[in-house]
Structures are given as structure tokens and as C-alpha cells.
Amino acid sequence: MYEKAKHYHKEYRQMYRTEIQMGRMGRKAGNFYVPAKSKLAFVIRIRGINGVGPKVRKVLRLLQIFNGTFVKFNKAPLTC
């Protein structure tokens, strides 16, 4: 288990350093670097579900208040 955590730490540290390096290279060349947007969101139900469409209710499956679920970003969640 420890080796797996060590591997993930190394991988994400490398990705973080790459993002910083790309930003620096962009500034040095007189351009700019736009990092990739996140593709995952965590949705939490904090109020009642009245007024929410049936398809949204079925997809999110948030039956109780303060429950959460992960949602993959695509065009649909961005337009709501």
C-alpha cells in the first residue's frame, strides 16, 4: 500500500512541476500558458430537490441533504 501511495505522490508532483515549467516557458517566450481545466466536480445537495428535473435527479442520485457525488464535466453540466 505504501508503494502505491509513493508512486501517486511522485506522479502528481511531476505533473505539478510540468505545469509550473510550462507557465514559465510561456512567459519567457512572451506568450501565456493556459492549464487544462478539471474534468471532475463534486456535487453536494444542500437544499430541497423541488424544481429539479427528473432526469437530473436520476443522474445525481442525491437522496438526502448533504450527500455528494462526483460528476464528470462535459457540455451538459456546464450549461445548467
From TrEMBL:
GO MF terms, alphabetically ordered: RNA binding; structural constituent of ribosome
Large ribosomal subunit protein uL30 N-terminal eukaryotes domain span: 2-36
Residues of the Large ribosomal subunit protein uL30-like ferredoxin-like fold domain: 41-76
GO biological process, one term: maturation of LSU-rRNA from tricistronic rRNA transcript (SSU-rRNA, 5.8S rRNA, LSU-rRNA)
Keyword Ribonucleoprotein: yes
Keywords: Ribonucleoprotein, Ribosomal protein
Signal peptide: none
Keyword Phosphoprotein: no
GO cellular component, one term: cytosolic large ribosomal subunit
UniProt-listed InterPro entries: Ribo_uL30_ferredoxin-like_sf (IPR036919), Ribosomal_uL30 (IPR039699), Ribosomal_uL30_ferredoxin-like (IPR016082), Ribosomal_uL30_N_euk (IPR012988)
Superkingdom of origin: Eukaryota
Gene3D superfamilies noted in UniProt: Ribosomal protein L30, ferredoxin-like fold domain
Protein family according to the UniProt entry: Belongs to the universal ribosomal protein uL30 family.
Name of this chain's protein: 60S ribosomal protein L7
Native source species: Myotis davidii
